[in-house]
Amino acid sequence: MLPARQPSDADAGGMPDSTTPAATSAPPVIAARSLLGTAWLRIRRSKIALAVVVLMILFAALAPLLTAIEGQDPYTTRTSPDVLDDYRTPGLPLSYYRFPSSDHWLGVEPGLGRDLFARMAHGAQVSLIIALLATAVSVVLGTVLGAAAGYFGGKADMVISRIMDLFLAFPHLLLVLSLTPILQSRLGDTALGDGSLLPIASLVIILGFFGWAYLARVVRGQVLSIREQEFVEAARAYGASHRSIILRQIVPNVMGVVLVYATMMIPTNITAEAALSFLGVGVKDPTPSWGQMLNAAQAGNWYLTDPWFLAVPAGALVITVLAFNLLGDAVRDALDPKSSRG
Questions:
Q1: What are phi and psi of 94, to 5 degrees?
Q2: What is the C-alpha to C-alpha distance for residues 129 and 139, in angstroms, rounded to an integer?
Q3: Given this model, what pLDDT does residue 60 score?
Q4: Partners of 37 in the beta sheet?
Q5: Does residue 273 surpass a pLDDT of 70?
Q6: Mean pLDDT score of the chain, rounded to an integer?
Q7: What distances in angstroms separate CA 169 from CA 150, 166, 172, 185, 213, one per listed residue?
Q8: Do the Cβ atoms of 277 and 290 come closer than 8 Å?
Q9: Of 63-67, 93-97, 178-182, 331-335, where does the model show the most confidence?
């Protein structure tokens, strides 16, 4: 007679023993990663560029605190004979004031003897404010007009597209050079007056207003394909307004392109501000600006006597623009869906 079979845990409705193969062969749980999470991990790989950008933003934001620690400001002039040379090279700082010291961390500038570190720190603040605000203006105009052209099509698309072509056809630098003084004279009659905010406001308006066309063209191309997607058709069937569809359905789907454009536009605007200030139509003295510092070093030919006065603003400009460009490349690669780099 066969022995009776002993009841198992499975017969009683319980779970199998942890030593059985069924319990040990469970697949591992893989955490899903969002698009932004994946993009951030890829951006973090550009550690040097990201670190330099963060440091320059902090340097500009903390400019008043840093200059207070140094004990100097960007406006005080020092023209006494114990600071500037009166004989061999009139206007050139004496050796103690010419190079970095405990009192002047980067020395003083020729001619007026103003502190170079204080002017470079506050110049970074001015340059980044202009670049960021001008980029924001271009991004808003380009995104809204490009999305409207691609979504509505027809006459709206034709009008906006012809305006884009018109803006892209003009030589950008010549247009900015000719219009900036005119805008500054017009704004001089407003509440801005002729103060230090006048050139900053004029550069933000000019650079922002004439920098949106390329982004608008790219956004329009993206929206032309997105507007035919099922979720947009579903929103229309649900009765959503055009404004709601554009802002809630279409614009979020082109933000990757917009973000890449913005990160690439910031260094372009930094360079444009420096070039305009160097040519004398941007930020005016005594307001500190990297371009204005380059202009001062070149105007008196001080860079021929000592390249230090040109190397300080030029080095800061090159490092900042290079770091933003590298960060823009990293953002582009991170948000590229075809990129296989995890």
A1: -65, 165
A2: 15
A3: 95
A4: none
A5: yes
A6: 84
A7: 21, 5, 8, 26, 10
A8: yes
A9: 63-67
At 144, which helix (H) or strand (E)? helix 116-152
CA distance 205 to 227: 31
Answer yes or no: are the C-beta atoms of 310 and 299 closer than 8 Å: no
Residue 174's identity, in one-letter code, is L
- The two most distant CA atoms of the chain are separated, in Å, by 125
| Alpha-carbon span 57 to 124, nearest angstrom | 8
Neighbouring residues of 74: CB distance < 8 A, sequence distance ≥ 6: 67, 114, 115, 118, 119, 121, 122, 123, 286, 288
Helix (H, G, I), strand (E, B) or coil at 93: strand
Phi, psi (degrees; rounded to nearest 5) at 320: -65, -45
SS3 113: coil
> pLDDT per residue over 158-216, tens digit each?
999 999 999 998 888 788 888 888 888 887 777 666 566 888 888 999 999 999 999 99
> What is the pTM (predicted TM-score) of this model?
0.83
Which of these, 208, 334, 321, 324, lies nearest to 263 by C-alpha position?
324
Closest C-alpha among 202, 206, 235 to residue 141 = 206
Per DSSP, the three-state class of 147 is helix
Helices 47-61 + 63-70 axis angle, to 10: 70
